[in-house]
Every structure is written in C-alpha cells, then in structure tokens.
Design a protein that fits this description.
Layout lengths: L2 E6 L8 H12 L3 E3 L2 H7 L8 H7 L2 E6 L1 H11 L6 E5 L9 E2 L3 H9 L4 E14 L2 E8 L2 E6 L6 E7 L2 E8 L1 E5 L7 H4 L11 E7 L9 E4 L3 E6 L7 E5 L3 E5 L4 E15 L5 H10 L1 H4 L2
Parallel strand pairs: 1-2, 1-3, 3-4, 4-5
Antiparallel strand pairs: 6-7, 6-17, 8-11, 8-15, 9-10, 9-14, 11-12, 12-13, 14-17, 15-16
Helix pairs in contact: 1-5
GO molecular function, one term: metal ion binding
Family: Belongs to the NAD kinase family.
Enzyme class: transferase
C-alpha cells in the first residue's frame, strides 16, 4: 500500500479544505495518507505521534499543497531523503505545483495506482566565500539571485566561468538558474525558456546597464563564480529559491555549480513541458481578462 505524505500550506489552504479532499481521495483509492500531528489535529484525523520529519521518512511519495513557493520549500526540506514530490497548485501560476486543485481526486488515483513517472531535476550547490572562508552554503532547485540591497545603487558583479572572466555586469544583479528555474525570475528578466530535463546553467543579468548584455547558457559541468566588486561599499543580497537570504558585500565571492543531488518530481503523462507553457504563459492573458 502506497504511503503518501502531505505537506499543506495553511495560508493558502484555508481550513485545510483541499488537504481533507486529498486525504479522503488517497484512502478512497486504497492508499495511506500521512500528515504530521499538527495537521492531523486540525483535520480531525488520527494522530500518529509523528512530526513532519518522521512523516517524510515513513512516506513513499510526498504531496504539497500551495503554490510554487510551497513546492520549493517542501523540496528543499525533503531532497536529502530522496522522496518524490508532487505539487497541488492552490495559487495562480504554478509551474512546479502543476496539479490543479480541481483535479486532486484524479491525481490521487494516479498516485495510488502507480500511474506516474519520476522526473529527476538538476539542482545547484552555491557557496558564499569571504576572506577565503565559506560563510554560507545552500542547495538550489530554481535559482540563485544576487541583487542590490536596500539602497538603490548599481551593483557591479564580475562573473567568471571556470575561472575564465566572462563579463562585468553593472545593474540590479544577476540570476543563476537551473532549467527548472528558467520559467521563474529568469524568464521575467528576459532569460530563455529551457526544457527542464536537460542539464544546463543559465546566467541572466537583472536590468543591466549595458546595451549588449544578454543571458548566457553553459553546460552543467562548469562552475560559475561571481565576485561583488571591491568598490561596492553598500550591501547586496544572495537569495536562494526565494527561501533563504544572505547579505554579501564588496569582495565576497558566490560560487555556484551543479549539485550531486537531484530532485525527484512526480509527473503524470498527461502533460508535457510545452502543454504547460501554453497553459501557464501563452494563454494566461486571455484567461485573466
């Protein structure tokens, strides 16, 4: 019997309405629905004396309910445990959490009956080096964003690929993204759309003060090194997947490379990447009129 762990975003799932639907649907089709005790007490479910970490350990597959931010938070929590993750979209866009809230019962049936595939997504490791020492490390599914801080001044970022100087980007910052993250902030900044099952690293400048500046795509075996110019006396920020933020200053080095860890994501065969693009981006303007 497939054990399915559930991580809801209670801010988006008011009263845990859709969490209850998911739990009932999993049990209807013969699976086991698992939630941590905090959620169980609110849904009236039997408490098993487990926290979220233990619930993940007990599960074969994980489902999160919310938006893409919820998916990223859940993915970063469970990636080390190698549990496949499916997202139910309770937000507006939802590239990662791509199951519609109205399709929960159908998705539960597919899960319990094994009618799904596992899509292994490339991730990145990023580290911040200051005075020769690593002061922060993180793992990335979508993107690493290096941006100016609270003071609105141009940020100068010296960018290298495998220690070969690529360019000096003056502007609001730089986005280093995976193919999965190509549909997120990088796209809004003018970056390319990349199929998520390839291994590439995308560097996209944010509002560059250069006429010729464009995104740069390189193979996943390269190492991207970004140096905050020594003349930058104001602080900047490194934001990872929109979840964690780190302050950086002049002379700090941000090193990003392909991770040895990959994120297993549950995918149903009904939609391919291009179907999702048409539904989420190209047709979005019409649906919002």
């Amino acid at each position: 019997m497939l054990k399915i762990g559930i991580i809801p975003n209670e801010d988006k799932d008011e009263g845990l309405k859709y969490t209850r639907i998911l739990m009932d649907s999993i049990r209807k089709w013969g699976g086991t629905a698992l939630v941590c005790d905090d959620v169980a007490s609110k849904t009236g479910d039997k408490e098993l004396n487990i926290n979220e970490d233990k619930m993940v350990d007990m599960s074969d597959v994980m489902v999160c309910l919310g938006g893409d931010g919820t998916f990223l938070k859940a993915a970063r929590t469970i990636v080390a445990k190698r549990k496949p993750l499916l997202g139910v979209n309770l937000g507006k866009l939802g590239f990662l959490a791509d199951v519609d809230k109205n399709d929960i019962e159908k998705a539960a049936k597919h899960l319990v009956e094994g009618e799904f595939t596992i899509d292994e997504r490339m991730m990145l490791d990023t580290a911040i080096v200051r005075d020769g020492k690593v002061v922060a490390e993180d793992i990335v599914l979508n993107d690493v964003v290096i941006s100016r801080g609270a003071i609105s001044r141009i940020l100068h970022l010296k960018t290298y690929i495998n220690d070969a100087f690529m360019d000096l980007y003056p502007g609001d910052g730089l986005i280093i993204s995976t193919p999965t993250g190509s549909t997120a902030y990088s796209l809004s900044a003018g970056g390319p759309l990349v199929e998520p099952d390839v291994d590439l690293i995308i560097s996209t400048p944010i509002c560059p003060h250069l006429l010729y500046s464009r995104s740069f795509i390189t193979t996943a075996d390269r190492v991207i090194k970004v140096v905050v110019a020594e003349s930058s006396h104001h602080e900047a920020m490194v934001t990872v997947d929109g979840q964690n933020g780190y302050e950086v200053r002049g002379g700090d080095i941000i090193i990003t490379k392909k991770s040895q860890v990959r994120m297993p994501m549950v995918r149903f065969n009904e939609k391919n990447f291009f179907d999702v693009l048409r539904g989420k981006i190209y047709d979005r303007g019409e649906s919002m009129k």
